Each structure stands twice: as C-alpha cells, then as structure tokens.
Amino acid sequence: MEVVQPLDTSKTESDPSKKTPIQLTWVNITITAMPATGRCKPQGALKEKRIIIDNVSGTVLPGQFLAIIGASGI
After folding, report:
1. Which residues of the chain have pLDDT under 50?
2. What is the pLDDT of residues 62-72, one digit of tens each?
3. Which of 6, 21, 49, 67 is disulfide-compatible with 62, CB 3.0–4.6 A?
C-alpha cells in the first residue's frame, strides 16, 4: 500500500485528539494461497496454489471504511 498523504505527526504530538486524514491507494495487488507443506497436512488442503485476489487496484479516502471479506473454506 502507498500512503498518498504523509502523516504529519507535528499536529498530533501535542494533541492526540487531532488526527490527520490519510488516503490509502494500492495498485495491482495479487494474493495467493500456497498449499500446505510437510507431513501433517490438514484433510482437504490445497494441492496447488490458488489466487485469492487477482490484480486489484483501489483507493480508500478519508472517512471511508474498507473490508475485504469472502466465503470461508473456499
């Protein structure tokens, strides 16, 4: 992730209630689940790597909330 607007700590050091808004931006993120290794693999473990998030870009602006969720066990 890239922090587009740097956090100015000089404003928050004297008064912690004052917060500097930031914008988070990410570009071309890919997340892969790798198969378990070793002798004690769980039953039903992945046999090959699986792409969970593929080439995703986005931005979260100050005041917005972002959650990445999905079905479990897939």
Report:
1. 3
2. 989 888 776 66
3. 21
13 CB-side CA count, 13 A: 4
Long-range CB contacts for residues 40-49, cutoff 8 Å, separation at least 24: none
CA dist., res. 74 & res. 10, Å (int): 45
* Structure tokens that stand for 71 in this block: 């079905």
Alpha carbon 27 to chain centroid distance?
12
Q: How far is CA 6 from the centre of its chain?
A: 18
Predicted TM-score (pTM) of this structure = 0.52
The reported pLDDT for the residue numbered 61 is: 93
Closest Cα partner for 37 from 28, 48, 26, 27?
48
